[in-house]
Each structure stands twice: as structure tokens, then as C-alpha cells.
Design goal:
Elements: E1 10-15, E2 22-24, E3 37-42, E4 44-48, E5 57-61, E6 63-65, E7 71-73, E8 89-90, E9 93-94, E10 96-98, E11 105-111, E12 119-121, E13 131-139, E14 158-165, E15 168-173, E16 180-181, E17 187-194, E18 200-208, E19 224-231, H1 233-236, E20 242-251, E21 257-268, E22 292-296, H2 315-323, E23 328-335, E24 341-343, E25 348-355, E26 358-368, H3 374-379, E27 382-383, H4 386-390, H5 394-398, H6 412-418, E28 424-429, H7 450-464, E29 470-474, H8 477-486, E30 492-496, H9 514-524, E31 528-532, H10 533-536, H11 541-548, E32 552-556, H12 563-571, E33 576-579, H13 582-585, H14 592-607
Parallel strand pairs: 22-23, 22-33, 23-28, 28-29, 29-30, 30-31, 31-32, 32-33
Antiparallel strand pairs: 1-2, 1-3, 3-7, 4-5, 6-10, 8-9, 11-17, 11-21, 12-21, 13-16, 13-18, 14-15, 14-17, 18-19, 19-20, 20-21, 23-24, 25-26, 25-27
Helix pairs in contact: 6-7, 7-8
Protein name: Beta-soluble NSF attachment protein
Organism: Astyanax mexicanus (Blind cave fish)
Pfam families: C2_GDE1, GDPD
């Protein structure tokens, strides 16, 4: 059989009885007559393994076809040629997506004004100057045998820049000759794809825009006043995958320091413990329906509700929401000390202890969830952190101790096993946030390694989800970017509070407005945003604006608990409504997905 794409594209084949895809390095493929194959075309780069040149190959997926129904062929002749168009177009529909990280690493360097200006100039003559920055990169030279396997297999390291602001975005592209100027309202990000993350020399060139510096005739770039150099090994080998480094800017004419540049870095690695394939992708797929009902923490927040009978984020709460027509249930997932994905809303919990000489009196201690093992979380008597503020111990008294479904801290695996597969999961990936005043969520300035954290949770989901609908979400834009780059199956929404009178402003400028959240979602090519209803109620046109940009829009917040607000949001076309007490609003009934399934089954039966 011949490749259906006219260009020399590589193919991925799915056999009827195969659980993985075969990579084929040419356009002629021999398959058994009478067999059935699904296939997708992909332009790829092929690499030999670094350790063993004779071993299995490695593939870098830059772009691939993502039609929900892949191309298919069932040959009846010994030789069959199929040519149904070009790469990315099948059945007259164009559908492609960017690839995911397979064996390469992505390094991101960011310059922004979230905390303070990224460039600080100490040289008086440049104090009033305006600058442009350009990043260039070089591989650190090492002695290497020209005939060794590692001398010919390496992927070409790529460098691109992207920028976002309230007013829009410019996704990955090459830099102009003298780079870009930095602006307070703009987030500037350099993305590097490489097989050698610890072997790069990254050079920032600083250009003066008004060229007050005397131009030397031999200058390749007039206006160059200084450079700052960063070795990738200085942070890649540290074990920290995100952080900040401050670099001195050296004058081009001397060894004098003329200032410094503050660089925010992020290292994204391929997922460990799971191999993604091309069988099916929902990363950008969304079927438009009327607004979906999403049960907040299952049947709703039990600590904010006065008459709530079911503890939030428990199996009982999720089952209750499922029985009342919830299309999705929303819940937070983070890791225990022994790296078990657990379901709980807050970063901390309260442990109760009895006073030494007073058995009837209890004292509460606030403890980060990450500092307790899964077994400890199951055994200890816990209270919500609000009990610390109001001295209310009712959680400890009313807890349904003898019923497993009512217990807090179920594992993510337990939730998959207990909740019907027809109910979708909106999984918020819990991560710490820094506030504008410099403080951190729950006073936690350090957390897990972000790559490890996500690898564990993503692997759990990918292994257990089956046919269940999954939508990830997170308030941290770096987590959203990582989820998009680490796997190709499930979508993610960027959670944003926008401008709020309820919650304090966050430090990261990407989190500060609904408009820049849209720009971020477009730039990262994720499914959409989950916006704070408080902000949407000020300007309902944001919903249509986001959707016109190809984004899906969910909304969250206490304002969603008002029936009239939900009605308005539905009228304006919101895609998903996350709210409490879904059991009070809905009768016991199957959800929209179950109804659609039953209708399809009846139609099929009537036609057969």
C-alpha cells in the first residue's frame, strides 16, 4: 500500500489487534490482504537512540493528523494505492495538531514585569535608554568522536519566541534581527526544543533602540551595548524545573557590568511511565452543546453550605451529583507525601488532637497535605481549615466514620473505580500560587517538582480513564503548558479569577485578567479558559469573544450558585457551569451524555 499523502510523510498505523502504533519510515507499506488498518499521517524527525545506535528509533512528532475518525483501509488486492489528498486533510476536513514531547526537552526562558522590570541598568549613560533583547543559543563544544553514535543522531535544537498581553498574542516565531523591546503589560517567552538540555549556551544581546552608543563600522548589529550569558546546565542540573536566575549584563567594549537581567525559566520534560500514541486525541476537540452542568466538588462545597449533608470531594458526593444529571464532576487533585494522587480541595488540612489533661478539649493543627502519607490521611481525624478561624469542630463530630464513601481523601484511582464512566471528570491540578503582595497560598513557597507531580497524576489518569470524558484545569499557567506538551489525549482549561473583589490579585501577569487568559490559551493552543463568574457578570461579551477565538469557556465561583446568574450565563452561550448543590437544582436523572447514548442506541435499533 502507498502512503495516502502526496508528500513524503511518515505514517502511524493501528492494526485491529494492536495496542500501540507502528512507525513506518517510508511511503510503501506491506499489509495483509483482508486485514483492517487505521492510519494517520505525520511529518516527523527520526533519531537513533543516544546510547545504542543499533537500538530502537526515537521519533519527534512536530505535527500530526487528529481527525476523530482516522483514515482507514481494508485492502482486497495484493497491491493497493490510496491517494485521498494532502497531509492534514481527510474527507475534505483539515484537522491537525502540534506534537507532544517524546524524547526531547523544552526549555522556556521568560522576561516579564510580574514582580519588577526584568532588565535593570546601572550604567548612568544608559539610564534613560530603551532596549531590545534578542536570545541566541549555541551548543557547548565537547570533544566527540565523529564516528560515535551520538555524533549523528542529534535533533536540531530550535529556538522560537512568543508574546502575550491583554490585547492579543503572537505565538511561536523567529526573532527579528535585533529582537524585541520589553513592555510592562507583555509576557515574552523563548521556547527551546533540544535533546541536550544541559549543554546549551544561552546569550542575551542587549540593543539600544536610539543608538546613542557610537556605532563601530565592523558591528554586525549596530546598537549592541552588552550581553548576558546563561549556561543551561546551571539550572537543568540543579533538580529544579522552574525558578529565576539573575545574570550580569557585560559591556560589549569592556569587562564592566552595565546592569543585570532577571530570567524566569521552566523546563518541560517528556512524561515518564507512559507512552502516548496517536489512537485518539481530545486536546482540542469539543462538541458544542447547551451549557453542561458541572458539580463543584461533586455535590457542592460542604463547608460553605449550612445545610449540606454530604461531605465535599468524597465518593458519596460524586455519586450524588452523578445521580442528579451532572455531566462532569469537578474536583482538585494533589499528591500525598508518598506520591499518591488524592482528591481534596485545600493545600492544607487540620489535624485534631486532644489536650493532655483535658480529654473533652481539642486543638487543631494546620498541616500541608503534601506532608502526610496516603495512609496517614486515611487514619487521622481531620477538619477543614475554616475550623481554625471560627473554632468550629462540627466536622469532627458529624463525620460519617463508618461509611467509606463519605471519607475524605479518596485516591484518584478510587474515584475512577467508583463513579460511573458516563460522568466526566473536570480535574483541577492543585498548585501553589504567589499573590501580588509576595505571599504564597497556604504559606507554601515550595512544592513538588512540577514534572514529577504531573507525570504521576497524568499517568494515573491515562491508565484509568477508559472512555470517560476528562478535562483538566489549573490556575497555574505553567502547569497548563506542561499538560499540553506532555500528553496528546486530554484537554486543559486555564483557570482564571480575572479582576476580582473577592480574591487577592496574583503575581503572575498571565493570571490577572480574563483577556490575557484568553491570549495565553490561544498562544499555548489549549482548549480554553475557566473564567470567574464575578468577572464575566461585568462583561458577558467576554464569553462570545473567547468563543470567537476558538476557545471553550467554563465558569466557576459562588455567583454560579444563584439560579438567575446561571440563566444569564446559559443565554450567553457558556459551555460549562461549575456550581454547588446540583442536587437541589436538578431532579434525579441521567446526564446529557447518557441521554445521547440512549438516543443513539434507539436510532441504531430502529435501523437494524
Amino acid at each position: 500500500m502507498q502512503c495516502p499523502c502526496r508528500q513524503q510523510q511518515k505514517m502511524a498505523l493501528y492494526g485491529k489487534r494492536q495496542s500501540h502504533f507502528q512507525r513506518v519510515s517510508n511511503t510503501n507499506i506491506a499489509i495483509l490482504r483482508g486485514s483492517f488498518w487505521n492510519l494517520r499521517c505525520q511529518p516527523t524527525d527520526w533519531l537513533a537512540e543516544r546510547v545504542n545506535a543499533g537500538g530502537p528509533g526515537q521519533v519527534i512528532v512536530n505535527k500530526w493528523e487528529t481527525h476523530q475518525l482516522p483514515r482507514s483501509v481494508s485492502p482486497t488486492e495484493s497491491d493497493q494505492t490510496i491517494d485521498d489528498g494532502q497531509f492534514g486533510v481527510s474527507g475534505g476536513i483539515e484537522c491537525t495538531d502540534s506534537g507532544w514531547l517524546t524524547s526531547q526537552t523544552e526549555i522556556r526562558l521568560r522576561l516579564h514585569y510580574s514582580i519588577k522590570p526584568p532588565v535593570s541598568i546601572t550604567k548612568m549613560k544608559f539610564k534613560k535608554s530603551r532596549f531590545r533583547l534578542k536570545l541566541t543559543l549555541e551548543g557547548v563544544e565537547e570533544e566527540e568522536d565523529e564516528e560515535s553514535p551520538s555524533s549523528w543522531h542529534k535533533m536540531t535544537t530550535t529556538l522560537e519566541i512568543s508574546m502575550i498581553s491583554d490585547s492579543g498574542y503572537k505565538s511561536r516565531h523567529t526573532q527579528p534581527e535585533c529582537g524585541y523591546s520589553l513592555e510592562p503589560t507583555k509576557w515574552t517567552e523563548y521556547s527551546i526544543h533540544t535533546m541536550d538540555p544541559d549543554n546549551l549556551e544561552l546569550i542575551f544581546d542587549l540593543f539600544e533602540e536610539d543608538l546613542s552608543e557610537k556605532v563601530v563600522q565592523s558591528d554586525v548589529h549596530p546598537g549592541l551595548v552588552g550581553t548576558a550569558c546563561l549556561l543551561s546546565s546551571s539550572f537543568v542540573e540543579s533538580g529544579k524545573d522552574n525558578g529565576v536566575v539573575t545574570l550580569p549584563i557585560m559591556s560589549r567594549n569592556s569587562r564592566q557590568t552595565i546592569g543585570k537581567v532577571r530570567v524566569d525559566y521552566l523546563v518541560i520534560r517528556p512524561i515518564q511511565g507512559f507512552q502516548c500514541d496517536m489512537h485518539q486525541s481530545f486536546s482540542k476537540y469539543w462538541r458544542k452543546r447547551s451549557a453542561l452542568d458541572v458539580g463543584h466538588r461533586g455535590a457542592g462545597s460542604s463547608h460553605a453550605a449550612k445545610h449540606h449533608k454530604i461531605r465535599e470531594n468524597t465518593i458519596a458526593s460524586f455519586l450524588s451529583a452523578a445521580n442528579h444529571g451532572a455531566a462532569y464532576v469537578e474536583f482538585d487533585v494533589h499528591l500525598s507525601k508518598d506520591f499518591v494522587p488524592v482528591v481534596y480541595h485545600d493545600l492544607t488540612c487540620c489535624i485534631s488532637t486532644k489536650k493532655k489533661n483535658d480529654k473533652n478539649s481539642m486543638v487543631l493543627f494546620e498541616v500541608p497535605v503534601k506532608d502526610l502519607t496516603f495512609d496517614q490521611l486515611q487514619l487521622l481525624k481531620l477538619a477543614h481549615t475554616t475550623a481554625m478561624k471560627v473554632h468550629d469542630h462540627k466536622d469532627l463530630v458529624e463525620e460519617e466514620e463508618d461509611i467509606d464513601e463519605h471519607q475524605p481523601f479518596p485516591s484518584l484511582t478510587q474515584i475512577f473505580q467508583a463513579v460511573p464512566e458516563s460522568v466526566g471528570f473536570n480535574i483541577e491540578l492543585k498548585w501553589i500560587s504567589q499573590l501580588k503582595d509576595g505571599s504564597w497560598d497556604a504559606n507554601l513557597s515550595t512544592y513538588f517538582n512540577m514534572n514529577q507531580f504531573l507525570d504521576i497524576i497524568l499517568t494515573c489518569v491515562l491508565q484509568n480513564a477508559g472512555k470517560r470524558r476528562i478535562v483538566f484545569s489549573c490556575f497555574d499557567p505553567d502547569v497548563c503548558a506542561m499538560v499540553r506538551r506532555k500528553q496528546n489525549k486530554y484537554p486543559i482549561l486555564f483557570l482564571t479569577q480575572g479582576v476580582s473583589d473577592v480574591y487577592p490579585e496574583l503575581m503572575d501577569i498571565r493570571c490577572q485578567t480574563t483577556q490575557i487568559a484568553m491570549s495565553f490559551a490561544q498562544s499555548e493552543d489549549i482548549l480554553g479558559i475557566s473564567a470567574h463568574t464575578e468577572d464575566l457578570l461585568r462583561n458577558m461579551d467576554c464569553i462570545k469573544e473567547a468563543q470567537s477565538k476558538g476557545l471553550v469557556v467554563f465558569c466557576w465561583g459562588d455567583d454560579n450558585n444563584d439560579h438567575e446568574n446561571r440563566r444569564k450565563l446559559r443565554e450567553h452561550g457558556i459551555d460549562g457551569l461549575i456550581y454547588d448543590r446540583i442536587c437541589d437544582d436538578q431532579l434525579e436523572q441521567p446526564n446529557i451524555f447518557k441521554v445521547e447514548e440512549q438516543v443513539s442506541l434507539k436510532e441504531w435499533e430502529s435501523q437494524s
